[in-house]
Design goal:
The protein has 165 residues and is of the alpha+beta class. The chain has one domain: Heat Shock Protein 90, CATH 3.30.565. Helices cover 25% and strands 24% of the residues. The protein has a 5-stranded antiparallel β-sheet with strand order 1-2-3-5-4, covered by helices on one side. A hairpin with a 3-residue loop joins strand 2 and strand 3. The longest helix has 22 residues. It is globular. It starts with 26 loop residues before the first strand and ends in a 7-residue tail after the last strand.
Length: 165
């Protein structure tokens, strides 16, 4: 008896990819505005551009939106005293490990430890003084650096938990 001929077509089994999510390459974004409070309207479109490139989850984007807007607003109002001849410069560097959002104004600086705690009873009804508190609450790390050219705030988000690292 003759053996049946082997079929040349092989059954293909597709395996699900077990490789980790694609790592983010290093990206940098820049934004500059004059110290006019109306410039705040340009912040969200800038942040949307960053979000589109990094694909942050909604919660992480919201954290950056609130803290980043606060930092830029503080640079315009408090650092540069709304002087339209001064500017606020923003640099955002992102890789698979972290997002670093730096906001630099041309003001004379301040001592963050001297900013009143907005949660103290005497400060609860004040209309200002919550920006630094919000930044510290929403970001993984916040640093303030006083330079001869102005104040720089650095906001950091750990990107590893987002599946990029």
């Amino acid at each position: 008896m003759k053996k049946p001929a082997k079929s040349s077509s092989k059954k293909r089994i597709q395996k699900k990819s077990t490789s980790p999510p694609k790592r983010l390459g290093r990206m940098q974004f820049k934004f500059e505005c004059t110290s006019d409070p109306k410039e705040i309207a340009k912040v969200e479109p800038f942040l949307q551009k960053i979000n589109k490139a990094t694909r942050m989850d909604d919660g992480t984007f919201y954290r950056l939106l609130v803290a980043g807007t606060e930092a830029i607003n503080n640079g315009i109002l408090h650092g540069n005293k709304s002087d339209p001849n001064k500017s606020v410069c923003v640099t955002c560097t992102v890789d698979s490990r972290k997002l670093i959002f730096r906001v630099k104004d041309q003001g004379r600086g301040f001592k963050p430890e001297e900013v009143p705690d907005p949660l103290e009873e005497k400060n609860l009804m004040k209309t200002s003084g919550r920006g630094i508190f919000l930044m510290r609450s929403l970001m993984d790390k916040v640093n303030f650096t006083l330079t001869s050219e102005g104040t720089e705030v650095e906001l950091v988000i750990d990107m590893k938990h987002l599946g990029h690292g």
